[in-house]
Write a structure and sequence with these properties.
- The protein is of the alpha/beta class and about 400 residues long.
- The chain has two domains: about 100 residues, no CATH class; about 270 residues, NADP-dependent oxidoreductase domain (TIM Barrel), CATH 3.20.20.100.
- It is about 30% helix and about 25% strand.
- It contains eleven helices and 20 strands.
- Strand 11 and strand 12 form a beta hairpin.
- Helix 1 packs across helix 2.
- The radius of gyration is 23 Å and the shape is globular.
- The N and C termini lie far apart (about 50 Å).
């Protein structure tokens, strides 16, 4: 029997046409000394544990009770029952219960993807540089970053223009292993001397010797790209010098508005990555996905999406739909700004359970996206001028 995907917030599985309720109770976590690679041991009540669903089922035809573990990532240690070993990324049916509790080693992971021509493996969920950077208390901001890293997020977004985001990330990185992390930055300046000072400051604040990805920040017109960045003393030439010195690995382009202009800019330079709005609300206004994705893919560029949560305008009950929509596009990373440990944990749990939206979910998503997009479009989409459709 195969379980069809259900909306996790409703907590319902359908197996063989039968509906089974799923309890929504998080299990306590405790460390285990048995194996350094096994992950945390969870004594899981019938219900819901981080990284997967654990449901109790009763078959009225056979009178048999069982449990279903449905992971969306991988198990650090495969679940073993009396008759077989359950592989990773599969639905596992477990029938061994002890005192109404089931003890297994299990954990989930955020899906990983290759960031285009960079060849780098990154998590499909990235920590956006906006939100946690606005926290006044350094310790609180660092705590958000640490929780994101500890839960497996590897793509870290920053920009010199995000208040003191780079400084706070630098403090956080001092207490974590840089290995496996993909640290990004953005430069907003355009002339050579200004860019040199800006990038030098980024290195100082981040406290790193190399930056994985430096992006031109907010380039929204082809004219701006040609006159401000491609000139002999422009930003791209400075970044190229850092690349030749081995201090910047890749170069990217970001933009918020005018998808048609952005597609033209993609053809002007061999960027490694692009960063654009790729949220569900952009299906309604200012759609980048239909044009930018094929243009960038044709040139092998990695694609990073932003604004999945539309500046926090998405109702809590629909956040999984909005995140899964963006993750379901042909892009490599979705960056989301998070301003608390709770937000990090929520978004990681959503990302771990990623699966393509069903037709019903997609229809619901579009309805909700239209409601969100009905707000102040100049604010939501950064459009300098908004003309009513029709």
């Amino acid at each position: 029997m195969r379980a069809t995907r259900s909306t996790w917030s409703r907590g319902v599985f359908r197996i063989g046409g039968l509906s089974h309720s799923l309890l929504a109770k998080m299990a306590p976590e405790r460390k285990t000394p048995t194996s350094p690679t096994a992950g945390p041991e969870r004594e899981i009540p019938r219900g819901y544990g981080r990284g997967g669903r654990l449901g109790e089922f009763f078959n009225p035809r056979t009178g048999r009770r069982s449990a279903l573990v449905e992971p969306y990532g991988f198990l650090y240690r495969p679940v073993v029952t009396g008759d077989r070993k359950h592989a990773t990324r599969t639905m596992s049916r477990v029938v061994s219960w002890q005192a109404d509790r089931l003890t297994i080693f299990w954990s989930m992971a955020i899906p990983t993807r290759t960031l285009g021509k960079t060849g780098q493996t990154v998590t499909a969920l990235g920590l956006g540089g906006v939100c946690w950077n606005l926290l006044e208390d350094d310790a609180e901001a660092i705590g958000v970053v640490h929780r994101a890293i500890d839960l497996g997020i590897t793509y870290l977004d920053t920009a010199s223009g995000y208040k003191d985001c780079e400084r706070k990330l630098g403090l956080a990185l001092k207490e974590r292993d840089r290995e496996g992390l993909f640290v990004t930055a953005k430069c907003i300046k355009r002339s050579g001397d200004e860019v040199k000072r800006e990038i030098a400051r980024s290195f100082e604040d981040l406290g790193v010797d190399t930056i994985d990805l430096m992006q031109l920040h907010g380039i929204d017109t082809q004219e701006g790209l040609l006159t401000d960045t491609l000139r002999p003393d422009g930003a791209l030439r400075v970044i190229e010098e850092y690349q030749q010195a081995g201090r910047i690995r890749f170069v990217g382009l970001t933009g918020h508005t005018h998808p048609a202009n952005f597609v033209q800019m993609i053809g002007e330079y061999d960027f490694d990555t692009v960063l654009n709005p790729m949220g569900a609300a952009n299906r309604v206004w200012n759609d980048f996905s239909s044009s930018t994705i094929p243009a960038a893919r044709a040139r092998g560029m990695g694609i990073i999406g932003m604004k999945a949560m539309v500046y926090g305008q998405v109702p809590a009950e629909h956040r999984p739909l909005f995140v899964h929509y963006s993750m379901g596009l042909d892009i490599d990373v979705v960056i989301i700004g998070m301003d608390s440990v709770a937000h990090v944990e929520e978004n990681v749990a959503i990302a771990e359970q990623f699966a393509p939206l069903s037709a019903d979910e997609d229809r619901l998503l579009l309805d909700e996206a239209m409601k969100v997009a009905a707000g102040d479009k100049k604010t939501l989409f950064w459009l300098p001028e908004v003309r009513a459709a029709g």
